[in-house]
């Protein structure tokens, strides 16, 4: 098996991606919102057939990373909000968990569900023939007039 297509190795992109998400979540909620919007932008680019990266496989990996990271981001945000409520309940100066502890715990909570999901997605992508799918997609795009299916000339 090609080591560059091994799902357990390629799946490590999700914890790396979630490291940046953790930094955004722990630092500022505006950065967290911007990061989530960027993640949704990656998903939207894939759905609209906009190539973000040079190869089909890399675009698939980017899409699967964004999808699996969204689950982890939601869980991480819930955990961070819980920590914020608990730590500000007693005294603003004293916190039960350090900043580094919040970072590592938030990252772990986000990574635990998303890494197995990423491995599952990549194993499914490796079984597909991406070049054949792209050829079928281009043939369908060239066959229709570019508008919605109801406006196809053969249908009138």
How would you describe what is shown here?
By secondary structure, the chain is mainly alpha-helical. It has one domain (3-136). It is built from 6 helices and no strands. It is elongated and about 60 Å long. The termini are far apart.
Reconstruct the topology from this structure:
Blueprint: H1 7-10, H2 13-27, H3 29-47, H4 56-89, H5 99-127, H6 130-143
Notable traits:
elongated, 156 residues
Summarize the structure.
By secondary structure, the chain is mostly helical. The chain has helices at 7-10, 13-27, 29-47, 56-89, 99-127, 130-143.
User: Helical percent range?
Assistant: over 70%
Distance between termini?
A: 50 Å
- Look at the structure and give the mean pLDDT: 83
Order of helices and strands: HHHHHH
Q: Could you tell me the strand content as a percent range?
A: under 5%
Number of strands: 0
Class by alpha and beta content = mainly alpha
Radius of gyration: 20 Å
Largest sheet: none
| CA-based shape | elongated
Provide a count of the helices: 6
Extract low-pLDDT stretches: none
Domain module tally: 1
